[in-house]
Specification:
Chain A is mainly alpha-helical and about 350 residues long. Chain A contains 15 helices and no strands. Chain B has about 120 residues and is mainly α. The chains are: A mainly alpha (about 350), B mainly alpha (about 120).
Chain lengths: ~350, ~120
């Protein structure tokens, strides 16, 4: 059966037979770069379309259905539209920072791709501190947002950026603590080891209620971290026009937009990896026959299926909950989520020590 | 692919964004008029400086965040070995959280967590 790992292995052995080691490495790097850029662009197109279709479906309307078969090419048309718009830089803006901010946003989103296992034995960097890497890099996102807001010379942008800064750093804590629950249970920071530890059942099923609470907190926190509704205070369009990217137009805006959607994908991929077993098929304990049947579904389909399910969940939130006020938002984090997630971590530790999970 | 993937990804991000920006610069035709570069604020000319003072609350939250973020960094090595160490890890984390909670309660009592 063809799988991603097989293809990459065949390619690797063919390249090392044909070329010298240095050239093999260079060619592999170029291929990896092209693959990642393609994945990036494709994910952007798919997620924008998905967002609009889900929104339309929830609000009982049609959504985009004119461009291409069933509106499939709508996001491509949007990209072309953004491409031919002039990218302006407002007077009095800090030109260097203004142009640097979207590039940094892209860089952060791209760097987060490194440790994610898309299929079994298929990831860019099998990092032994994968979880720490993801937490560290994802917190760089706030820099690009603050940079964009500060450099724009616009009060809306500045306010949006400050709000977003407060929000992202706050919710990072409970996201980190809920990730920690899984690290305690699987005793590893390596994403591959974490996936392997779920071979006899995903943590969300194996870990009883504490892990489920951790999962809920994680989902809430990452929704806030990616600035999505109901936590989209950074760009609350009814108060701040568009928040930190009010002054951005054309391709620079598109880069922000793309980075935001990629971030949604990545946090969902991390959530799927930690709680739902990543590419691990649905296994139940020692039901050998059942597990064997489940193994026939390719691991990449499991991974993308779980990830897109979580993305759908986050899109669903947007049309279900009203936007919070900034004081309510910070109250929710500091007075409820943070103490709950700390207590929950203690419960998970107790569970791990007593061996009360399957 | 190891650590070189980080370099690959940074280069990929740079090429992707710079090509996108360059193409859009070539394709579009820039126009200019005196009001075009003004900051967008509902159509009327802006008043006062943009970089004004902001609510002190942001600063306070950032300070408290710093404490908890350092805590999170300390938790990473603990979390990896917690299962192996057993009950001692539980005691340690209880002491750690207790000290942390004292600071948190102090901040709460002082009203640092209240948005004004």
């Amino acid at each position: 059966m063809w799988s991603f790992s097989k293809i990459s292995n065949i390619l690797d052995s063919w390249l090392s037979e044909t070329f010298s080691p240095t050239w093999t490495m260079v060619i592999e790097m170029v291929i990896a770069g092209i693959c990642v850029i393609t994945l990036f662009a494709l994910l952007g197109l798919v997620l924008v379309l998905m967002e609009r279709r889900v929104a339309a479906w929830i609000q009982i309307r049609l959504g985009p259905n004119r461009v291409g078969p069933g509106g499939m090419l709508q996001s491509l048309a949007d990209t072309v539209k953004l491409l031919v718009k002039e990218g302006m830089t407002p007077d009095g803006a800090d030109k260097f920072l203004f142009n640097l901010a979207p590039i940094i946003a892209m860089m952060v989103a791209m760097l987060l791709m490194a440790p994610i296992a898309f299929a079994s034995n298929f990831q860019l960097w099998d990092l032994n501190i994968g979880v720490l890497y993801v937490t560290a890099i994802s917190s760089l996102m706030v820099i690009s947002i603050l940079m964009a807001g500060w450099a724009s010379n616009n009060k809306y942008s500045l306010m949006g950026a400050m709000r977003s800064g407060a929000q992202i750093v706050s919710y990072e804590l409970s996201a980190g603590l809920s990730i920690m629950a899984i690290v305690v249970l699987s005793s590893s920071l390596n994403l591959n080891d974490i996936i392997q530890s779920q071979a006899d059942g995903w943590w969300i099923f194996k870990g009883h209620i504490p892990v489920f609470i951790a999962f809920l907190i994680f989902i809430i926190a990452v929704t806030a971290e990616t600035n999505r509704a109901p936590f989209d205070l950074a760009e609350a369009e009814s108060e701040l026009t568009a928040g930190f990217h009010t002054e951005y137009s054309g391709m620079k805006f598109a880069l922000f937009f793309l980075a935001e959607y990629i971030n949604v994908f990545i946090v969902c991929a991390i959530g799927a990896t930690l709680f739902l077993g990543g590419w691990m098929p649905f296994h139940i304990g020692h039901w050998e026959a059942f597990n064997h049947v489940m193994d026939f579904i390719p691991s990449s389909i499991w991974f993308f299926g779980k990830t897109f399910f979580l993305i759908f969940l986050i899109m669903w939130f947007r049309w279900t909950f009203p936007r919070l006020r900034i004081d309510q938002l910070l109250d929710l984090e500091w007075k409820y989520l943070l103490p709950i997630s700390m207590f929950n971590l203690l419960l998970v530790t107790l569970m791990a020590i007593l061996g009360w999970h399957f | 692919m190891g650590a070189s993937s980080m370099i690959v990804l940074i280069i990929a991000a740079l090429t992707f964004s710079s090509i996108a920006m360059l193409v859009s610069k070539i394709v579009t035709k820039a126009t200019s008029n005196p009001q075009k570069g003004q900051p967008y604020e509902c159509g009327i000319p802006t008043r006062g400086k943009t970089w004004t003072q902001l609510n002190v609350g942001y600063y306070l939250f950032a300070l408290i965040f710093l404490i908890f973020d350092v805590e999170l960094v300390f938790l990473f090595p603990w979390a990896v070995v917690a299962k192996k160490v057993g009950w001692m890890a539980m005691v340690e984390i209880l002491i750690f959280f207790f000290i942390l909670m004292l600071g948190f309660l102090y901040a709460h009592k002082k009203g640092a967590l209240k948005w004004v």
